[in-house]
Amino acid sequence: MVVGIVRFEVHLPAAQSLKDKRQVVRSMKERLRERVHASVAEVEYQDLWQRAAIGFAIVASDGGHVRELLQSARNIVESYVQAQLLDWQETLQ
């Protein structure tokens, strides 16, 4: 069993309120859940309008599959035009 854990931060330059931020973050979390089957949560900066930290975890039977899923997740995050990826920290265990 291999576990992939990621914590990433994004900047949301167009967000003018927490409602704007939540809309983008909710969409990103749902897309990661649906496409990568990850457990996802916003883990920091809940009160800031233009910044979010999100954590997620993936479990699979082999490391190669986990790496593929992590790369797919990163592609999803990078595809958001409303969000700029600031930091990506991943760990395989």
Percentage beta strand: 35-45%
SS summary, helix count? 2
Looking across the biggest beta sheet, what order are the strands in?
2-3-1-4
Can you tell me the CATH class?
A: Alpha Beta
CATH topology: Alpha-Beta Plaits
What is the radius of gyration computed over CA atoms, rounded to a whole number of angstroms? 13 Å
CATH superfamily: TT1725-like
Can you describe this structure?
The longest helix has 19 residues, at 18-36. The chain is built from two helices and four strands; from the N terminus they run βαββαβ. The protein has a four-stranded antiparallel β-sheet with strand order 2-3-1-4, covered by helices on one side. The protein has 93 residues and is of the alpha+beta class. It starts with a strand and ends with a strand. It has a single domain, classed as TT1725-like (Alpha-Beta Plaits). It has helices at 18-36, 63-79; strands at 2-11, 39-44, 51-60, 84-92.
Structural features:
Alpha-Beta Plaits; 4 strands; 93 residues; alpha+beta; elongated; 4-stranded antiparallel beta sheet
Can I get a quick summary?
The chain is α+β, with helices and mostly antiparallel strands and 93 residues long. The protein has helices at 18-36, 63-79; strands spanning 2-11, 39-44, 51-60, 84-92. 39% of the residues lie in helices and 38% in strands.
How is this fold's topology laid out?
Elements: E1 2-11, H1 18-36, E2 39-44, E3 51-60, H2 63-79, E4 84-92
Antiparallel strand pairs: 1-3, 1-4, 2-3
